[in-house]
Amino acid sequence: MAFCQSLMNELYKYIGQFEDVPAGDIGVGAREVGFMYGQYKKLTGLYEGVLTGKGLPYGGSLVRTQATGYGLIYILNEMLAAAGKDLAGKTVVVTGSGNVATYAAEKAQQCGANVVAMCDSNGYIYDKDGIKLDIVKAIKSNRSARISEYAAQVPGSVYTEGCGIWTIPCDIYLPCATQNELDLEGAKILVKNGVFAVAEGANMPLTREATDYLKENGILFMPGKAANAGGVATSGLEMSQNSLRLSWTAEEVDARLHQIMVDIYAKVSDAAKRYGHEGDFVAGANIAGFEKVAAAMMAQGIV
To answer: What angle do CA 199, 104, 247 make, to 5 degrees?
Structure first.
């Protein structure tokens, strides 16, 4: 704990040389990881990779930025295929406009879906012809501006202030913004408007009541503990590359990520079936996760 505090103190001191930002307002992105990694090496004299999400020049991995969003679509595709459905031609709403949302939308579009809405903390945009991600990236990733600018740049699109993106009719809803962003009332509106699949890109974006309601109404639902594992999985791939002193191509990393998400779906689905909860991926994810931890504990004589 003392070491971690020392590391953070050095980080705040370093950032303070360049800008006046209160410590509590510092977000953790590639820049901050870089600062922390540099201070880690300074304080310990060690080079071994203990931080992931690093920049490419000093041990980072290609596809790490896209990984959570891409992984979400890979596992969504598995869930849809098992139900005899696919993404092609489907209308999709993606909440958020950060890395997870942006790259989930990108991969969904590559799979033939029509992503019609995205949002930020101020409001949401709707574009019936399909969100132009190059414009979203220019606004959000390049300039950290408000997504309302999209409507000013794209004729026919509409910006709405405040919450309510879940009121837009869609086939598939991908919450990728923040915790507890969709409550029971929102879930009811989704079901009423004909949604048939929901997969969590953020950490616990649905309340427990919303999750239960979707399941009770037969909506295909993949929880975040499985659906957004792609980011952490690719951090593991980054550590593997560091250990091997290798840098895999984007295609190699993406292929490994894809297979990891396919495997996660298989384990979640199988666990649900074995315990009499076929199609309940919440139960399946909980059981599969518990089984893995329990097996490791027993193998090591801990229990």
So the answer is: 120
Beta bridge partners of 160: 124
How does pLDDT run across 145-156, given as a tens digit for each residue?
Answer: 999 999 999 999
Angle, CA 26 vertex, CA 233 and CA 8 arms, to 5°: 80
In this prediction the pTM is 0.90
**Separation of alpha carbons 65 and 46, rounded Å:** 25
79-92 pLDDT per residue, tens:
999 999 999 999 99
- Looking at residue 160, the DSSP 8-state letter turns out to be E
Contact between 63 and 250 under an 8 Å Cβ cutoff? The reply is yes
Question: Residues 233-279: pLDDT tens digits?
Answer: 999 999 999 989 999 999 999 999 999 999 999 999 999 999 999 99
Can you spell out the DSSP letters for 87-141?
A: STT-EEEEE--SHHHHHHHHHHHHTT-EEEEEE-SSEEEE-TT---HHHHHIIII
Contact status, residue 218 vs residue 199, Cβ threshold 8 Å? no
C-alpha span between 33 and 61 (Å, rounded): 13
Q: How much is the pLDDT for 46?
A: 81
277: three-class secondary structure by DSSP: coil
Q: Which domains does the chain have, with CATH numbers?
A: 1-51 (no CATH), 67-227 (3.40.50.720)
Please give the Cα distance from 268 to 283 (Å, whole number). Answer: 8
Strands of 123-126's sheet in order across: 158-161, 123-126, 114-119, 91-95, 172-175, 197-199, 220-222
Whether the per-residue pLDDT at 199 is higher than 90: the answer is: yes
